[in-house]
Protein: GtrA/DPMS transmembrane domain-containing protein
Organism: Rugosimonospora africana
Amino acid sequence: MQLVAVSPRLRRFIRFALGSALATLVSAVAFWVMFHTLHAPPEVASVTAFASGAIVNFVSNRYWAWDRRSRSGLSRDLGSYAVLAIATALAAAGATRATKSYAPHVDAFAAHLAVVVEASYFATYAAMFLVKFAVLDRVIFRSRSQVEKTTRA
């Protein structure tokens, strides 16, 4: 059996996708508990889900997908990641708020408001998936060797 060579970027993308899937699962559970069980407003459920998933996502991205084990640059990476994550979370909070406001006016959605609001939350994150990978790979977790290659070119 011959193993297929996988480029470092593809390996990072696969690990990013797996870490994102785990973070999504954690976020889904947090959103469900807050919105369905505790009847929190969608903005509170979104922020709680965001915080839960962001922790899992940062750790899996930095230490596993991009294999950055050194403490050097940790605060810079964390700060940059936080800006990206917060921008995405604000978009998701806006989407859930708009969905909760407008979905009751659509007969097909009114009876399933909680599911529709939750779907809007995850649709926002799905739309940002490739954008986040590109920003993480090209800016936030960019290696020194990538910087040297681009400055020489």
